[in-house]
Specification:
Shape: globular
Radius of gyration: 14 Å
Largest sheet: 7 strands, antiparallel
Number of strands: 7
Structural class: alpha+beta
CATH topology: Pnp Oxidase, Chain A
Number of domains: 1
Order of helices and strands: HEEEEHEEHHE
Helix content: 25-40%
Distance between the termini: 16 Å
Number of helices: 4
Strand content: 25-35%
Length: 149
């Protein structure tokens, strides 16, 4: 049985995100499984909207360690956190992670201190641009960890 979140699914307003999520899910992770033309693997994160309560989905870099995943709220180094960060903070136990054929339930928490440093190093090793994004912004880019429930 495939895990789902109940409620109305509202696809991303960004065409490329909506198309990537749809292709990834339709193919069980066989298609659209890298970020655009980078060749870097992605996962699909399903969550509940912080204000709307609607179901939202995004593709994020695949930064995995011991079965958990870093969700890096870089927003390309923008001055504000991405909306999805607030969704996950508001509903940390209403999350699905898909890394392959089937999504599964996860719980999300924000990390700091040494634990954040360790996960940040893993994230930058996968996607070096994260370091550049951090240099572009005055905010500390949040790192959330999604762990299977």
């Amino acid at each position: 049985m495939t895990e789902t979140l109940s409620g109305t699914y509202v696809p991303s307003a960004m065409d490329w995100v909506r198309d990537q999520v749809e292709a990834y899910e339709r193919s069980g992770g066989q298609e659209a499984n890298t970020l655009l033309d980078t060749g870097i693997p992605v996962i699909i994160v399903t969550m509940r909207g912080a204000q709307s309560g609607d179901v939202r989905k995004i593709a994020l870099m695949r930064v995995e360690h011991d079965g958990a995943y870093a969700l890096v709220a870089s927003f390309g180094g923008a001055p504000k956190h991405p909306v999805w960060f607030w969704n996950l903070k508001a509903h940390p136990d209403e999350v699905l992670i898909q890394d392959g054929p089937e999504p599964y339930r996860a719980s999300v928490r924000e990390v700091d201190g040494t634990e954040r440093d360790e996960w940040w190093a893993r994230a930058v090793a996968v996607y070096p641009e994260y370091a550049e994004y951090q240099q572009r912004t005055e905010r500390m880019i949040p790192v959330l960890i999604a762990s299977p429930v």
